[in-house]
From TrEMBL, chains A, B, C, D:
PROSITE patterns documented for this protein: AA_TRANSFER_CLASS_5
Family statement drawn from the similarity comment of this UniProt entry: Belongs to the class-V pyridoxal-phosphate-dependent aminotransferase family.
Gene Ontology molecular function: any one: alanine-glyoxylate transaminase activity
Organism the protein comes from: Escallonia herrerae
Name of this protein: alanine--glyoxylate transaminase
Family annotation (InterPro entries): Aminotrans_V_dom, Aminotrans_V_PyrdxlP_BS, PyrdxlP-dep_Trfase, PyrdxlP-dep_Trfase_major, PyrdxlP-dep_Trfase_small, SP_NH2Trfase/AEP_transaminase
GO biological process: glycine biosynthetic process, by transamination of glyoxylate
PTM sites of type N6-(pyridoxal phosphate)lysine: 208
CC cofactor: pyridoxal 5'-phosphate
Positions of substrate binding: 354
Length: 408, 408, 408, 408
């Protein structure tokens, strides 16, 4: 007999991988445990009973009472398609904002789905131009605009848009357009208020601030969106809300097989969020983001986000000097420090690298990352003062980190 | 301090759940282990490298060399939509077979996607009527039929269709229609030969014979199907092969975030299949199915499948006497024996219950299930001779089970 | 890049391993999940808090209020040594019963620890000879006997001794000897009443009816045993209760590092036992054992246990005809059916094989095993009627299995 | 139905726990995966086959060819007892060094096991006084000293003793005393050479640098130690090497039930160590330790270790100013930062806190810890310059961290 030595990993490195891409993010041990299970019959009483409560509880992360959630076995891209095809018909005019790679991809999807997209473009690094939106709404007395589509948090540039202001504009002009929001890198991390802001469809993906594996697109529809779905002429089957609603009514909930593991994972992810308290979670994200920005400043580098009002609390895109290729920073993080950072995408490729600071994460994890970034910066020839970013971050954090409530 | 007692499970029962629904099926421990992991950056070199080999290896389960596989974060329903929308245009004439609930659902999808479906219906329990197909092909000298869509194994009735015969007909009439096959409850369990049978699109789902969690739809396209995808006018984005092909070319492989866990799970599932040998896997399914049918016969019950040529080796639908409600059998299995059986669906609701015998399963697991079914039958008033089905199954199995190669 | 194919298991076989050795036994998924975790600082407040409640709760499985439990990082053999060395001094006279391999090993340990062992031997298959014990107690007016040591359930032969009768004898003769009980294959499965039966030290191992991994020896001492430990002259350090008691008093509980994983595993194992109800657990073991014995009878084979009063509800040792080597049965189970049975040990090697039916196990799992044994018997040339044992077991079980309370 | 909300953890905190106690240490995901498995029959061919190779491979971590290893289901304390009782007889004279809490505990064990311990005491913070050893050896012409017992790395004070120098002295005086070494917090992390240094018994515990859960004491005996075990008169059973050797000879390897999970865990831990390369592992520990010491220096704090020659590469004990209670530092780490540091023990309680930097750990993890310590120091009133320690550590690390070989 010869025990077969097995190469454990093709890219093995000792210690933890420091995962700071803005998704997929770190999964807490509690969730890994909950998902470590065999399949089950999803037609037994157990799964519908569990689903019923999940659907109630998941509404809390959208801050909605009147919304109807759908837990779809798909990714954020599928959730986008679900939002659009259920509420709009081919040819419908959509106003959308192009401010970075993910808003670009969503707009591309809209166009390929045959909607008539009226694009409001900003510099990459700026937020949605709401003045232009105002003009368009003012001009649209005939209500040709059927929907406003906006990415709450543009993951490519670290820009957070002001959704309350969008709602204010719609109200001001008494415009009936649907308000569709990509909350993929915001929900469960940034302040999000579906009902208060009159959002008609909000959506997120499991692998972002929920800290689950990829595979569940969570879409939440307002009563107005549900109403729209009854008349939408977009062709759809897999993403059709009708099938879900039919099974909701029957109490079996699933038009097709869900991932048993993701259901238990979601249950646990929600339990953790509720145990910490959603407001505390948001506060934690704000704290980690502020610490990151202070480090960036201390390094003498620029935030890709142009104005403070747009600073994202889930991802920071850092601009590197022109003599440095930001991709080299990401590569080096992986090759030397077991640190995973986000690449610059498309227009900002080579120019920015991104630090994702969302999901189930704490301050010391972030500080390890920041220390790593400092060493990488030095590696690639940027004259950083080692320790400077960490010092700036710590100075802020040491004043603001709360005691852990369960341990006081 | 008070340790919080936690109700572990709302439906706790001691011992293993005996999972014999025809999907989702039992996940082997090796796969659970492989999936027990944190998220990773899918843009690091590790995931593309792994994906590249997975795409090569997954072709083996389709028995194709020329096919192009897509690993889509979706379910079987999404895989159907991917197959149809990438290869056909609205209004295209499809010939499809209605022989049970899953063929029905696929046809429903075809219609809602605006294809012109020419349905060939059989009794539930019978296979596809290939004579009618022959006539239609013969008559279709103008080649108005753009595709033949067939469910290889109808999970609702336990009917396996003869794909080689379909190909023979197409060849006989030199008909250029695309040949699209739902292999959801067949691939990795039944004999399936994509290239030899000239299948243009074949598809399966991760939670079936691959024995993974739900969440990956695996679609494989022939060169002819890929060619068709270039001109198909069906609206699609999430399911569009174009995006995959673009990323394949770039070597990054993923147009949107994959489930890291399912990738490692698939790697392991394939490793296990290849270690056992695909032909041995198919042989094992054949053995388990035969044993099940012998038990059914011994119980004096009828197989829902009308002829031996259609007997399914992955699921057996058992017809109960009219004085028994088959749903009561399923309920009782769950409530008393921790046994999960499949319900009768739609037309055969209340009339049949189903035993799924697919995936990573062995003989003694099946025999435990069969013994359970016997007790349930007695519970619900059917005069079964206890032990009779197990005896019949054992008589066959004891003659046919091979030694476990790794342990000889 | 070349993905390294990894031989998953050197002895891979499809489907579940059917684990029917009398320990280590099947671990329920809930326990595996609970143990799937990183290490923790065992000096933080969390572990002592958890331990405190565990020590209270673990007393329930011994049915003791006055006992003091010790959770020792060791096996049953170590638990034996802990029981003996803490309560007795070298040269002390012990009366012990030799009825099978495990009582033999314990006696061997007693002798090597320099106790003066007065052995009462029975045939392998018979229980402890309590008449002889009676005579010895009657004769021992000088109280030279310091302890009675008895294995509650002899795992090698499937013999359960009558502990209440032992206590009755001690009381009858007003004999002050300590009453030490090996409950390794009984506690959490058989009726065990530490306080009522006046047991002074009871012990078990985590890998038996608690259904955990190996590694925790659980020893419970009566006040009288604790008192004895103060004067025992046996040399001991690792197993010394004094160190535990010192740390209990300090509230930190651990004289050396415990297995964090086993603590969480134990927590879950107890939660599951309490959820099912300890009496229901014992009833389930009784039911599974009766079913097994009925199968053995139906096969025309003899139970190694000579009288019904000694029948064990956790393990059944089956005598094979002299022309069959029972080891071949065990080998064949493993090589052909992925079934793990217990070997015959020492005096009964080659003559008996053992079916362990303890721990977190249900009826259909057992029936799968019994069906497997039938096929093996046929394989090795025994003229069994296939299905006969399963039929006999089912006839009994179908009348006695209760509904699953959580699912009614 | 009401889904039971379950308090996930009584001491829940978001993000990873930063585990920097000097044991138990972080378990890598690969090991957690390997251990996530059901029990198995340890008498099947699989476990002996695996054990055989494990016993060969485990010798590599001791750097021995002639040694015989024992994998004992116990902790370090049990491993100590195994080392002593197998090689020595009651009354035997042992020379041992008292330099901190763990050497103290071992000496306490020696005394309670009735050996005649000749203690050479040093200040806590100093290493073993080898001059005194020299005198004793010189004086012991009658060879009354039967063994030299030394803790390689005193975990309480962060002191590493010079084993080569001990051997040199023994050789110089041609003294035949056995050389017994506690390698609990050194083996797999510090340079350790059993054969070269003529160590007779070396031992470690699974939860230290092997990065496994607690529960396996690994003891390795030289041929001379094995020879001594044949005549040792110490009473022992559970820890008796004889039983192991008997089962080694039989090829079944286990005198009692091993933890299946720890065996697979050990297999994986060794695979990871060998993949990284044992010398690289030691180099990594040296690097992390140096970085830690530079941070301590930058904070203006003193290392408890008095001289550089004794600096430990696995744990650093940091002396706090007298106006600070070091326990408060540890408490605060846990209560505010989810950071687990080591308490000061016994003589240095309240005076030092300890940073464990051993096991499967990387630089960014350590830097997160160091940043945390800085904030804690500020919390408790020590005037640290935030960022100073991290800066000093980074300055060193950025120059010395190698590229990850598998990722170049």
């Amino acid at each position: 007999f010869q025990y077969t030595k097995c190469k454990m990993d093709d890219y093995y490195a000792p210690g933890r991988n420091h995962l700071f891409v803005p998704g997929p993010v770190n999964i807490p041990e509690q969730v890994l445990r909950a998902m470590n299970r065999n399949n089950e019959d999803y037609r037994s009483p157990a799964i519908p009973a569990m689903t019923k409560v999940l659907l109630e509880d998941v509404k809390k992360i959208f801050k909605t009472i009147t919304g109807t959630p759908f837990l779809i076995p798909t990714t954020g891209t599928g959730a986008w398609e679900s939002a659009l095809t259920n509420t709009l018909s081919p040819g419908d005019r959509i106003v959308s904002f192009l401010i970075g790679q993910f808003s670009l991809l969503w707009i591309d999807q809209m166009q390929r789905l045959n909607f008539n997209v009226d694009v409001i473009e900003s510099d990459w690094g700026a937020g949605a131009n709401l003045e232009v939106l105002g003009s368009k709404l003012a001009a649209d007395t005939g209500h040709t605009i059927k929907a406003i589509c906006i990415v709450h948090n543009e993951t490519a540039t670290g820009v957070t848009n002001n959704l309350a202001a969008v709602r204010k504009l719609l109200d001001h002009y008494q415009h009936p357009a649907l308000f569709l929001v990509d909350g993929v890198s915001s929900i469960c991390a940034l302040d999000f208020r579906m009902d208060e802001w009159g959002v008609d469809v909000a959506l997120t993906g499991s692998q972002k601030a929920l800290s689950l594996p990829t595979g569940m697109g969570i879409v939440c529809a307002s009563p107005k969106a549900l109403e729209a779905s009854k008349t939408s002429k977009s062709v759809r089957v897999f993403f059709d809300w009708k099938d879900y609603l039919k099974f909701y009514k029957m109490g079996t909930f699933w038009p097709y097989t869900p991932s048993i593991q993701l259901l238990y994972g979601l249950r646990t992810a929600l339990d953790l969020l509720f145990e910490e308290g959603l407001d505390n979670v948001i506060e934690r994200h704000s704290r980690l983001a502020k610490a990151t920005r202070l480090a960036v400043e201390a390094w003498g580098l620029k935030n890709c986000t142009q104005k403070e009002e747009w600073f994202s609390d889930t991802v920071t895109a850092v601009v590197v000097p022109s003599y440095i290729d930001s991709s080299e920073i990401v590569r080096r993080g992986w090759k030397r420090y077991n640190l995973s950072l986000g690449l610059g995408l498309n227009k900002v490729a080579g120019k920015v690298f991104r630090i994702g600071h969302l999901g189930n994460l704490n301050e010391l994890q972030l500080l390890g990352c920041l220390a790593g970034v400092e060493m990488i910066l030095k590696d690639v020839g940027y004259p950083v003062k080692l320790g400077s970013g960490v010092a700036a971050a710590c100075a802020f954090l040491q004043n603001t980190i709360p005691m852990i409530p369960s341990r006081i």
